[in-house]
Sequence to fold (97 residues):
Amino acid sequence: MCLSLPFNTNYGLLELLLVSATSSVLPIPTEPTVALLLSENVSPLVILFVLIPASVFGASVGYILGKYGIRRIIPFHNPDREKRVQAWFGKYGAPSL
Fold:
């Protein structure tokens, strides 16, 4: 279905895929890309079929980075303080935020 769309629209859908996957981790808005595609008369259903799976994929990557890999990417400067904060958060839980 996408192959029958104009050249600009195909790249717009690719941009939407990349931006929506990235916007779950980094603060990049998807609205300008959606507005561009809607102005080119792309079906909102096609936009949703690209936007939703890419957003779920990006959120999953963000979750995995946060749960397992963030300490390898961003080293914490004070491991003792991190342990104290984790113990405090374990004791009082999310309502303490």
In short: The chain has four helices and no strands.
